[in-house]
Amino acid sequence: MDKIAILCSGGDSCGMNPAIKRFVEYSFSKNLQPYFVYGGYEGLIDNKIQEATYADVTGIIHRGGTKIYSSRSKRFKEKKYRDIAAKNLKNLGITKLVVLGGDGSFRGIDIFFQEHKISFCGIPATIDNDINGTQYCLGVDTALNVIKVATDNIRDTAASFKRAFVIEVMGKGCGYLALVSALTSGAEMCLIPEIPYDLEALKKRYLKEIDQGRNYFIAIVAEGLDNAKEIALWFEKEIGFESRVTTLGHIQRGGNPTVRERLMAYQFATYAIDALSEGKTNAVICYNNGAFDFKNIDEVNAKKYEIDENLLELGKCLLNK
Ligand code: ADP
């Protein structure tokens, strides 16, 4: 029986648990023995690798986070620790590895593969949706729904009090979460690193809208700009509206995985095991335009992720109405 292991690395995201459940069940159905690496690359180094059973994955499909824990590992950046990690896998006879993580984790596993030739398949998993080569990363839909609920709630109070609310959402250097959230929650302002903005032009428009009866503002800003407080001050000084900043923070990482998330997790895990069974050695499962395919890790790591041009255009329209 071939042995296959799964680990989660970097920032956790919703969808990891449903993917882990499918990983175990599909492994058994393909006559593979599944293993868990607990705690990401740290667990790989410390040999926290255990056989997985059906019982391990009961009752986890509706949980955010990851049952097998994640980590950031400084040690994994050093060759001597990657050598230990490889020895641990080889001692157990594990020849295949599924890695749920972001671009950092993929860079790490690529180096590990080049050194030790242990086959791996990456599943993009990060709420930031910032991995090149795939339009979807596990965790994004649930995070967007968390932001939607929070923004709708804030809108209730904003409307009652004639205020401007500046909502900062996650995404590191990527504005995807902020952009989609702004488009789907009717925000008046969306500031992301990918779209230049002109506060003077916005001021003219907002003042006109106030004349026409507007009595509150919702602004969604990407954390990558690090300017939520500055924008709130701008609303106070330039627009004359009392303002508040809400930093959504880590609530965006948790929650009950949405239906879309669970289905994506199911498919990502299935295709990852298929890829390894078919002999792929260093692939990432990517999702584009409604279909899944495998991309070589070099292709994924070669470039920075860019938000779809059509989506960016919609964001520009929102800012330049
Ligand atoms: P994410 O995968 O969510 O982008 P990080 O960027 O923190 O998260 O990366 C997760 C882990 O991947 C790091 O803690 C480290 O162990 C490993 N990693 C990242 N870059 C490298 C690298 N150049 N060499 C080896 N390991 C790396």
CATH topology name of the largest domain: Rossmann fold
Poorly predicted regions are none
- Quick one: biggest sheet? 7 strands, mixed
Structural class: alpha/beta
Widest beta sheet: strand line-up: 3-2-1-4-5-10-11
Cα gyration radius (Å): 22 Å
Order of helix and strand elements from N to C terminus: EHEHEHEHEHEHEHEHEHEEHH
Q: Which CATH class of the largest domain applies here?
A: Alpha Beta
Distance between the termini: 61 Å
Q: Can you give the mean pLDDT?
A: 96
What small ligands are held by the chains? adenosine-5'-diphosphate
Shape: elongated
Q: Tally the helices: what do you get?
A: 11
Strand content: 15-25%
- Whole-number count of domains: 2
Helix fraction bin: 40-55%
| Second rung of CATH, namely the architecture of the largest domain | 3-Layer(aba) Sandwich
Features:
Rossmann fold; alpha/beta; 11 helices; 20% strand; binds adenosine-5'-diphosphate; 321 residues
